[in-house]
TrEMBL record:
EC category name: lyase
Catalytic activity: L-tyrosine = (E)-4-coumarate + NH4(+)
GO molecular function: tyrosine ammonia-lyase activity
E.C. designation(s): 4.3.1.23
A matching Pfam family: Lyase_aromatic
Signal peptide: none
Species this protein is from: Pseudohalioglobus sediminis
Domain of life: Bacteria
UniProt record, GO biological process: secondary metabolite biosynthetic process
Protein name: tyrosine ammonia-lyase
Record Gene3D superfamilies: Fumarase/aspartase (Central domain) (1.20.200.10), Fumarase/aspartase (N-terminal domain) (1.10.275.10)
Keywords: Lyase
Length: 516
């Protein structure tokens, strides 16, 4: 899976970026665990401190006690080593679809990044086993449902814990196989989890954080593509270029909004604004595009910061301070920041889908599109009467938009008291991240329709001699060519499902080079 000469993501406790996690998840980056003696020693020090504590004090939460509300139950010494297996076993109750291969790799990467901070009291050997899974692309199959995202992603991460010990199932070379058969084929020894180790794997936010890494990197491309679609729609409907003037935006100083306006302005290579324009004001979906896409652009840096801090944090409980010899009890498994980041990201994303859906509506409609044919059908002569162009695609885009908007209900407000009221306030961050992923899929579909329709609109003006290719900025010319590689100009009605699927795939692959 891992491509040759591709980048390498090194797990050594130093900060990782969402881009690195996304590259790793896509199979485009190699994985390397720091093998230096210094790093090994730093990690092992936590496990050694716990061993010492166990010998000397005999009581450690989650090691010699039950979990959560069951912490008042003491576990007799002869059963302490059986406790980790019980933890992942009773949490083996995940439901729903499994996370995708890409998502599951991101989840493993997020857990490894957290354990590499060195505050979880696990052995270096455990980190090696997780990195072996990533390197050999043996990926646990993790059901998506069943985490409240505040006692960590306990249930999803139990699937990782179980796989480390050689149980449950994995994806391996495109097949779903038992971990046991893959380990024996690959000559991998299952690990025997030490007393704190199952808890350390499960008591964190890796499921929601891994998914959030993928969501924010996809959202960065959504911003750019929605901006370019706005420019193309403006050209297609002969919109008013002066809505994006730098002077206009200098008096409303949201930097992301200004950036979007500047990009559109450059795309449209607008000249000097007339002293008193007699041009009409376009509808809001064009005129206010920087104000809608700009919200997403302005919130992305904060969203990325939330996700990267969580990614590079010790999200576990208890935290093991081997240096100072303390066991610190807290709530670092709580995914509140990811919950908020994903809840707000999905709302901003769905607003962009709504904007593009309205741009599509203007562009296909002869009442608003300044002389383009109905539904942008390229059919001429008598054939025009029976051709319906992008009519159904516009209807579909309306449906995808509605579904995206419906998916924006915040998850974090649905906190429930659970686990005998020990977990009486929880984040629901994993649900927020999954919702955000679903919203993203729908947004990308709307953008696929948007790029298809805006390019057809511009191509119609060129075909009908109202515009030449050279009138367009080189970047827009290139977009038309890149779109034409995937979607031939629509003259005669044809089922567009496969074309749209290609376009969605191309969005995921960042096929259009946008504002580099
Ligand atoms: N997250 C809990 C531990 C826990 C683990 C498993 C459970 O099923 C419940 C609670 C804590 O650290 O306090």
């Amino acid at each position: 899976m891992v491509q040759k000469n591709s980048q390498t993501v090194v797990f050594d406790g130093t900060p990782l970026t969402v881009i690195q996690v996304a590259a790793l998840a896509a199979g485009k980056a190699k994985v390397k665990l720091d093998t230096s003696d210094e790093f090994r020693a730093r990690i092992d020090r936590g496990a050694e401190f716990l061993e010492k504590l166990l010998r000397e004090d005999g009581v450690i939460y989650g090691v010699t006690t039950g979990y959560g509300d069951s912490c008042s139950v003491s576990v007799p010494p002869e059963l302490v080593y059986e406790l980790p297996r019980h933890l992942y076993t009773f949490h083996g109750c995940g439901m729903g679809e499994a996370f995708s291969l890409e998502e599951s790799r991101a989840i493993l990467a997020a857990r490894l990044a957290s354990l590499c901070q060195g505050y979880s009291g696990v052995r270096y050997r455990l980190l090696e086993q997780i990195s072996t899974l990533l390197i050999r692309d043996i990926i646990p199959i993790i059901p998506q449902e069943g985490s409240v995202g505040a006692s960590g992603d306990l249930t999803p991460l139990s699937y990782l814990a179980a796989v480390l010990e050689g149980h449950r199932e994995v994806w391996y070379r495109g097949e779903q196989l038992t971990t046991a058969e893959v380990y024996s084929a690959e000559g991998i020894e299952p690990i025997s989890l030490r007393p704190k180790e199952a808890l350390a794997i499960m008591n964190g936010t890796a499921a929601m954080t891994g998914i959030a890494c993928l969501a924010v990197t996809r959202a960065q491309y959504v911003v750019r593509l929605a901006t370019r679609i706005t420019s193309l729609c403006s050209v297609a409907v002969e919109g008013n270029d002066f809505h994006f003037d730098p002077m206009l935006f200098s008096v409303k100083p949201h930097p992301g909004q200004q950036q979007i306006a500047a990009w559109i302005h450059d795309d449209l290579h607008t000249g000097e604004v007339p002293r008193n324009s007699n041009r009409l004001q376009d509808r809001y979906s064009l005129r206010c595009a920087p104000h809608v896409i700009g919200v997403l652009q302005d919130m992305l840096p904060t969203t990325v910061a939330f996700v990267e801090r969580e990614l590079n944090s010790a999200n576990d409980n208890p935290i093991i301070d081997a240096e100072g010899e303390h066991v610190l009890h807290g709530g670092h498994f709580y995914g509140g920041h990811i919950a908020h980041a994903m809840d707000s990201l999905k709302a901003a994303l769905a607003n962009v889908a709504d904007l593009v859906d309205r741009q599509i509506a203007q562009t296909v409609d002869p009442k608003f599109n300044h002389g383009l044919p109905a539904n942008l059908s390229g059919a001429t002569g008598t054939q025009a009467a029976i051709n319906h162009g992008f009519k159904a695609v516009q209807i579909a885009a309306s449906a995808w938009t509605a579904e995206a908007l419906k998916g924006t209900l915040p998850a974090s407000i649905f906190s429930r008291s659970t686990e005998c009221h020990n977990q009486d306030k929880v984040s629901m961050g994993t649900i927020a991240a999954r919702d955000c992923t679903r919203v993203l899929e729908l947004v990308e579909q709307v953008l696929a329709a948007g790029i298809a329709i805006s390019c057809q609109g511009v191509a119609l003006r060129i075909r009908d001699g109202q515009l030449t290719l050279q009138d367009l900025q080189p970047a827009l010319q290139q977009d038309l060519e890149r779109t034409a590689q995937l979607l031939t100009f629509l003259t005669e009605d044809r089922p567009l499902e496969q074309d749209l699927r290609r376009l969605v795939e191309a969005i995921r692959e960042k096929h259009w080079v946008l504002y580099a």
